[in-house]
C-alpha cells in the first residue's frame, strides 16, 4: 500500500526551536519517547525558526544537513519532534533516502508496542489507520483505470482509491467492535452507579508515577516502568476506605503535550472512565522542572474530553527526589484537601492519601430539592436515567418537586449539558 523506505532502529533526531509557544516542543521529552520506543539515538540536529518551512518543515539548507548526517552516521530513520504534513514527510524522505517519522507516528508506534488487551490493540490500530489514511501515496504510479487485453482489465479505480476504500472498510469494522466494548464498559459503570460505588480515576502526564501509585494503593501488580506510556490499557480495582466503604480506582493512559487528536478519539472508551469518575487523582511528578507545564497540558486534554468539571485532588509524587519535603496534606480555606505530597515508590504519605480520599468522596455527593416545571420533562427523564431521585411529589402549580442525590461531578456535568437549568430549579 505504501512505496516508502523501511524504518530501522538507528535514528537521527530533529528538533526545531520555534519562537511561537504553540509550536514549542521539549527535546528531552523526544529523547525519552525515542528511548521508550527502543530506538538508538545516533545524533541530534537542532534548528531555530519562526515558522515551519512549507516544503521541508526545516529550511532547505538544514534539510541538506540532515541528509549528510544520515549518510555519515548510517542512520535508517529520521524522527522529527513535531507534526509533519504528508507532503513534508514525502519531500524529506526523497531527500534523505530513508524513512521519516514525525512525533505523532512515534507516539503511535509506542502505543502499538504497549497495547496488551484486545480493546487496546483495536484502539491503537484505529488511530494508526486514521493517521495513515492521509499518507497514501502509491496512487500516482497506478493511474491507469483500464488496461487492454484479457485478464488485464482493472476494477475501474486507481490504486489510491482502492487503498482508501480498504482503509475505510477496516476503520468502520474497528469502530463497530469498539462500540461493543464501550457498551460493555457502560454496563459496568451503570451497575457501579446503582450500587452507589464511587469511582476514582488516576490521571496525569505520562511517567508521573500513576501505575506505581496504583500498585501501592491496591497491590495490583500492574506493569510500571520509568518510561513514557508504560500503561496503555485501563485497569480497575476495588479499594476499601473508612467511612466511605468500597470505591473503584482506575489507572488510565498518561497524557502528553500535543497528544494527537486521532489518539484522543480512538481512546474515547478508555478515557470515559475519567469522564464518568467522581474524583480525579491528578498525579504530578514534582521532581520534574516542567511540572507546571505538564499540569496545564493534562488540564487541556481533560477539557477536550469533557472531564474538566470532575473534582480534582492533586497528588505531588516523587517527593523522595526532593530535599526537605515530607508527606503532608495541603488544604484550602474551608479545610478541604487540595494536594497530597507522597512518594508512591517509597510508600511515603499513602495513609494521608487514603484519609484525603475519604474526605473528598464523603463530600462529593450533593443533595438538592428541585422544582421542575411541567414543561421540562426532559430533565426529569435524565434524572431518572441517572437513578438519583430519592423522592418525588407535585406542587400546587403542577410542577415536580424532586429530591435528588448524586456525585457533584455528575451534577456539574448535567448542569452544563442542560445550560445550567438544574441550578435554576434548586429550591433554596
From TrEMBL:
Chain ranges of the Hflx-type G domain: 198-365
Keyword GTP-binding: yes
Superkingdom per UniProt: Bacteria
Keyword Magnesium carried by entry: yes
Gene Ontology molecular function, alphabetical: GTP binding; GTPase activity; guanosine tetraphosphate binding; metal ion binding; ribosome binding
Pfam family name, one: GTP-bdg_M
Protein function: GTPase that associates with the 50S ribosomal subunit and may have a role during protein synthesis or ribosome biogenesis.
Keywords: Cytoplasm, GTP-binding, Magnesium, Metal-binding, Nucleotide-binding
Top-level taxonomy: Bacteria, Pseudomonadati, Pseudomonadota, Gammaproteobacteria, Alteromonadales
Name this protein carries in UniProt: GTPase HflX
Cross-referenced InterPro entries: EFG_III/V, G_HFLX_dom, GTP-bd, GTP-bd_M, GTPase_HflX, GTPase_HflX_N, GTPase_HflX_N_sf, P-loop_NTPase
Subunit structure: Monomer. Associates with the 50S ribosomal subunit.
Family statement: Belongs to the TRAFAC class OBG-HflX-like GTPase superfamily. HflX GTPase family.
Annotated positions binding Mg(2+): 211, 231
Cell compartments where the protein resides: Cytoplasm
Residues that coordinate or bind GTP: 204-211, 229-233, 251-254, 317-320, 343-345
Gene Ontology, cellular component aspect: cytoplasm
Cofactor: Mg(2+)
Amino acid at each position: 500500500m505504501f512505496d516508502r523506505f523501511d524504518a530501522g532502529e538507528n535514528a537521527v533526531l530533529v528538533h526545531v526551536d520555534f519562537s511561537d509557544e504553540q509550536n514549542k516542543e521539549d527535546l528531552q521529552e523526544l529523547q525519552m519517547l525515542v528511548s521508550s520506543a527502543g530506538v538508538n539515538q545516533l545524533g541530534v540536529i537542532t534548528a531555530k525558526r519562526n515558522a515551519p518551512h512549507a516544503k521541508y518543515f526545516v529550511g532547505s539548507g538544514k534539510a541538506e544537513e540532515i541528509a549528510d548526517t544520515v549518510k555519515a552516521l548510517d542512520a535508517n530513520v529520521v524522527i522529527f519532534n513535531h507534526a509533519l504534513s504528508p507532503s513534508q514527510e514525502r519531500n524529506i524522505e526523497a531527500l534523505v533516502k530513508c524513512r521519516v517519522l514525525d512525533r505523532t507516528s512515534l507516539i503511535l508506534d509506542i502505543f502499538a508496542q504497549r497495547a496488551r488487551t484486545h480493546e487496546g490493540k483495536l484502539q491503537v490500530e484505529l488511530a494508526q489507520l486514521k493517521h495513515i489514511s492521509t499518507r497514501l501515496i502509491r496512487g500516482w504510479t497506478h493511474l491507469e483505470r483500464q488496461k487492454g487485453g484479457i485478464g488485464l482489465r482493472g476494477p475501474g479505480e486507481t490504486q489510491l482509491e482502492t487503498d482508501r476504500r480498504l482503509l475505510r472498510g477496516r476503520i468502520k469494522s474497528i469502530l463497530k467492535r469498539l462500540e461493543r466494548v464501550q457498551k460493555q464498559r457502560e454496563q459496568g459503570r451503570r451497575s457501579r452507579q446503582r450500587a452507589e460505588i464511587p469511582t476514582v480515576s488516576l490521571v496525569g502526564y505520562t511517567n508521573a508515577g500513576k501505575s506505581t501509585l496504583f500498585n501501592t494503593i491496591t497491590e495490583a501488580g500492574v506493569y510500571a516502568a520509568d518510561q513514557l506510556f508504560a500503561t496503555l490499557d485501563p485497569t480497575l480495582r476495588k479499594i476499601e476506605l473508612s467511612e466511605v466503604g468500597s470505591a473503584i480506582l482506575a489507572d488510565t493512559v498518561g497524557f502528553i503535550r500535543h497528544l494527537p487528536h486521532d489518539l484522543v478519539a480512538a481512546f474515547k472508551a478508555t478515557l470515559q472512565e475519567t469522564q464518568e469518575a467522581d474524583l480525579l487523582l491528578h498525579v504530578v511528578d514534582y521532581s520534574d522542572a516542567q511540572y507546571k507545564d505538564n499540569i496545564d497540558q493534562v488540564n487541556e486534554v481533560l477539557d477536550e474530553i469533557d472531564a474538566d468539571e470532575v473534582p480534582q485532588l492533586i497528588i505531588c509524587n516523587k517527593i523522595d527526589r526532593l530535599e526537605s519535603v515530607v508527606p503532608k496534606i495541603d488544604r484550602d480555606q474551608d479545610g478541604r484537601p487540595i494536594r497530597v505530597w507522597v512518594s508512591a515508590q517509597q510508600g511515603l504519605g499513602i495513609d494521608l492519601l487514603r484519609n484525603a480520599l475519604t474526605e473528598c468522596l464523603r463530600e462529593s455527593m450533593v443533595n438538592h430539592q428541585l422544582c421542575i416545571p411541567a414543561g421540562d420533562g426532559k430533565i426529569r427523564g435524565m434524572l431518572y436515567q441517572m437513578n438519583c431521585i430519592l423522592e418525588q411529589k407535585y406542587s400546587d402549580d403542577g410542577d415536580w418537586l424532586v429530591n435528588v442525590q448524586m456525585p457533584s461531578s455528575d451534577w456539574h456535568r448535567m448542569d452544563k449539558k442542560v445550560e445550567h437549568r438544574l441550578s435554576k430549579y434548586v429550591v433554596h
